[in-house]
Amino acid sequence: MSERRLRPCAATGLSACAALALMAPSVSASSALAVEAPAELYEGHVQVDRAQAADSETLQGRVFDDVNENSKLDGDETGIPGVAVTNGVDVVQTDGEGNYELSVRDNMTVSITQPSGWQVPVDSDNFAQFSYNHLPEGSPGDFEYGGIEPTGETPKAVNFPMIESESTASAKQDCVIAADTQAYDTTEMGYARDGAVGDLADRDDYQGCGVLLLGDNVGDDLSLNDELRDIYSTMNGPVRAAPGNHDQDYDSTDDAHALDTFRDQFGPDHFSYNVGKTHFVVLDSIEYSGNQSTKKYKEKIGEDQLEWLGNDLKNVPKTAHVVIATHAPIVTHQQVIVDDAADLYDVIADYPNTVTIGGHTHTQENLIAGEQREEWADDGIDTLSHTQIVAGAVSGDWYSGGLNADGLPYSFTRDGSEPGILTLEFDGADRSERYTVRNEAEDHQMLLGVNSPGWRDWAQQTQDWQDEDKAGHEPEAMSERVVTRDDLKQGDTWLTSSFLAGTSDARVEMSFDGKANAVAEHTQPGRGESLAKGWEYSDPYTTSQNLRTSGSVGQTSSHLWRAEIPSDLDLGTHSAEVTGIDRYGREYRETIRFTVVEDEAAATQISKKQLAKDGFSSAQETKITEGERKGLDSDEARKADSN
Questions:
Q1: Per-residue b/e over 460-490, b at no fewer than 16 CB within 10 Å?
Q2: Residue 138 and residue 88: Cα distance in Å, rounded?
Q3: Given this model, what pLDDT does residue 164 score?
Q4: Where are the beta strands (DSSP E) in 25-71?
Q5: What molecular function does GO assign, one term (predicted)?
């Protein structure tokens, strides 16, 4: 009878894996520590028997307990019953001996749904192995990045190995979502490695659930997939990938083959897996036009995937936690993004504990079920039926802006956030989430600034200068922590807090110079109002830096609070303490010091000193083209960007 092998990485002391890591070239300090994989991860692959199938229209095989971890179905290894297997549309479950049969489709990826308490193998880069591509003649044409090589006729069997796992059985799970790594070259890949990805390499709380890359993993150049795999090989859990619009083969003439290279190198474009009491679903939300010159696409799920989703969910209890992860979010606080959003909501209507997760917009948003917005209603969604989280971005605002003390681009996003990682936390019936900013402690959740009439005038002048390609003299410096006495007396001068953990039911309080707390106003409460957009709804901290460097500002945010600063403050420096309480009762505190000056001349003088002290400089601005920064190529996205 087969016996489970001792996994070297699970051994005590200096294991064989750790010894090999010491001899390998070092990518970073974090990655050297992370090479010793969790004990339950094992390297392996799907087993394909290339002998001729008895029936070319039927694919069969077995899901089995790979006791000796050799990726082969040995005679004494048993099958695993009740595992879902799919050809991309149909979903069947393995019988009592782990066997399955599926109808063959001409162009399909066959995959299994990992059950809780089991773990599929990973490859040498820690990417999960749970699928098989069937494309007899291979990708049509000569794809620049390879596509899928001819697979030949239907194989005799495709067998899927797994091993038992305590980590995936636990109801307590931390699940990492890494959206939009989107490196356009090796320099930017290095920024990702030394930023948010390095943070993950130092963590060990996600071993069972692993890391889900949420699309736009690279920036069109699919030759960078190898570098992407390399930086994520340091993860302390399995890695899975969703596709985005920048992960496509743009030399494909149709959507059916636009993800052939992705499927070859990463796996299915839609699939599911279970950890603990949570069912994860990944969908492809990009429909490519096939136009190689324009590269246009729609944000759309499509009928086939919706049919598959309905079939997939038949095996899931209606009370279960379900996560629907797509590159393009179903909605943002500005608009409905996905064309067939209403159809998706119909499919998941009977699953109240479903949350949808997206990336794509390089914003960080947490929109809770029950919210209403005028722009959604215009597209037929009167009330948000399921919570939508937009997961921020590993790249932030496409690696733009000046370089910080760590040599990484500030990359402040257009909605007043920073590069980072989303983590979904599950514990039985409870779900929560946290967004952790690159290279920062978990309690770094608020960005503070002063939004005054003088600052807004400066912002518009600087935006005009940016729009003219920085022709002429840059407007005089303005710090978001300096305000004139006249501006205070004029009113409409607010202390703002970009509260990253904030939702519409969060609470933010502000205290000036130690006096009683004032309850701050949420600028986008989700009560049926239309979009609030303009300099008065902007986060001055991140907007100021972006105006001085990249020029990428959005003038709106789903997580901005503000309170009017007392108009009778004396000249000099003042302090304010801000307390943010998120929907889970977690409290965060930050303090800001700001200066009241006599007039604009004094404001300019103090601002120059303050900015020099802060170290913000446009001299170290990273250079990217406008198209790369925007990154949104659909008609809908361009329209939203111009609103």
A1: eebbebbeeeeeeeebebbbbbbbbbebbee
A2: 17
A3: 96
A4: 47-52, 58-65
A5: hydrolase activity
Instruction: Give dist(CA 605, CA 263) in Å, integer.
Output: 57
Between the CA of residue 124 and those of 35, 43, 121, 503, 591, what are the distances in Å?
A: 11, 6, 10, 39, 46
> How many Å separate Cα 446 from the centre of its chain?
20
CA dihedral 118, 123, 125, 129 (to 10 degrees): -60
Closest by CA to 352, choosing from 394, 318, 399, is: 318
Q: Cα separations (Å) of 149 from 139, 145, 183, 348?
A: 7, 11, 26, 36
Report the residue count for the chain: 643
C-alpha span between 141 and 173 (Å, rounded): 43
Indicate the SS3 state at residue 356.
strand
Task: Please state which CATH class domain 446-614 belongs to.
Answer: mainly beta
Ordered strands of the 321-326 beta sheet? 271-275, 278-283, 321-326, 354-358, 387-391, 364-367
d(CA 155, CA 157): 5
Q: Is the pLDDT of residue 26 over 50?
A: no
Amino acid at the residue 506: A
| Cβ atoms 52, 136 nearer than 8 A | no
518, 508 Cβ separation under 8 angstroms:
no
DSSP H helical ranges for 429-521: 453-467, 485-490
Estimate to the nearest angstrom the gap between the alpha carbon of 295 and the chain centroid.
Answer: 22
Beta bridge partners of 389: 357, 366
Phi, psi of 79 (to 5 degrees): -80, 165
Q: State the Cα–Cα distance between residues 564 and 417, nearest whole angstrom.
A: 22
CA torsion angle for 181, 183, 188, 193 (degrees, to 10)? Answer: 40
How far apart CA 132 and CA 264 sit, in angstroms, is 9
Residue 509 CB neighbour total at 10 angstroms: 19
DSSP 291: -
Strand order in the sheet with 572-581: 482-484, 587-597, 572-581, 507-512, 518-519
Averaged pLDDT, 393-415: 95
DSSP conformation letters of 553-584: --S--TTEEEEEPPTTPPSEEEEEEEEEE-TT
Which tokens belong to 118?
């089991």
Q: What is the pLDDT of residue 477?
A: 84
Indicate the CATH number for domain 173-437.
3.60.21.10
User: Rg for the chain (alpha carbons), in Å?
Assistant: 26
What's the N-to-C CA distance of the chain in angstroms? Answer: 66
Q: Which two tokens stand for residue 275?
A: 């950890």
89: pLDDT strictly greater than 60: yes
Q: What is the pLDDT at residue 39?
A: 60
Distance CA 559, CA 363 (A): 10
Q: Looking at residue 620, what is its pLDDT?
A: 53
* pLDDT computed for residue 610 by the predictor: 84
Least confident of 429-443, 552-566, 604-618: 604-618
Numbered ranges of CATH 2.60.40.10 in the chain? 446-614
Share the mean pLDDT of the chain. 90
For residue 487, pLDDT beyond 80 = yes
- In this prediction, residue 609 carries a pLDDT of 86
Is the Cβ–Cβ distance between 352 and 311 less than 8 Å? Answer: no
CB 49 within 8 A of CB 154: no
For the cut 70, the answer to whether the pLDDT of residue 11 exceeds it is: no
| Domain limits, CATH 3.60.21.10, in the chain | 173-437
What are the tokens at 211? 């890391």
Query: Which residue matches tokens 């801000």?
Result: 578
Question: 232: which 2 tokens?
Answer: 């994520």
